[in-house]
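Q: Sequence in, structure out?
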Amino acid sequence: MKLGARIFKTGIAIVLSLYLAQLLHSPSPVFAAIAAIFAIQPTIYRSYLTIIEQIQGNIIGAIMAVIFVLVLGNHYIVVGLAAIIVILLNLKLKLEKNIGLSLVTLISIMEIQSGSFIQFAGIRFSTIMIGVFSAFIVNLVFMPPKYENKLYLKIADTTEEIIRWIRLSTRHDFDHQLLKTDIEKLKDSYIKISQFYLMYKEERSYFKRITLEKSRKLVIYRQMTSAAKKALDTLKKLHRFENDLLHLPENFQQSIQEQLDCLIYQHEQLMLRFIGKIPTHPTYSEGNVCLNKKELFDLFLSHQKEYAEEDPPHMYHIMQIVASIIDYSEQVEHLDTLITSFHSYHENEVSIEEPHNE
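A: Exactly. Output:
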């Protein structure tokens, strides 16, 4: 188990909310702590959106609590009916994420036994808002997340794993069951990549130059993801149709291996070139000799002519492999173009550090 940044921030937010509630002499500081837990978010921008939404949700809960207590009292059946109304109002206003905190506000106010109800409701509402603002302050000040680091490293790790398997597959040197298991894990990696991409996209920049640079980076990261996805598709084809590959002529098999070896090498170099680990203009790009798609396609057509009359099933499988390799190469070429363009505008290398655990 690792102590991630979000876990640490949640603890700090609880401490801060309890401290502020006691400092302001709130009779029930625990409600501030509960609100702080609800309000912790993974990004500053989401924290900003959350505080706006939670203010609305808390107002709904507080108003409904006051109305129901003044009109119908605070019998537990009335509390249940008020809770239903609060949920419906939040759904109607598209504040689904704030239903929990709205209900906490509602119940905390409707539990009054005696005394000045309006004053009691105001104190409870204020206490809960202390928790919401405490969480916002913690999100703003403590360990702002670096989702660009997380995004790049996740894409790089996933790409590296795919490339390793492609290299083994072209040499027919792998464990089928292990590869099948890893392919499923790699599919799950794309869910995490999508989450990090969204988080990074949501991070706001306050200077025009940084905003423009980030816009270009978002395009590159999206293309990195697409290239890795095509690499995974190629790997799945190699795994699925391995027997068909083994029945190809030696020169055809060798060509596929050489094409893929050079393609994955270029893919690896591009990932490093983006963050400045290798020169901006590597020697492999001269003429893109290793990405001779026409040669590969001509070999397929030549092989297909030999079986024109027989129409064997394996030809359709080989066609899928060749098409996947060509598609993969086009994605890598487009990534090359984007990275070259990016470095022509932004000479400073992209800084990637090991991220905090979230």
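The first helix runs from residue 5 to 23.
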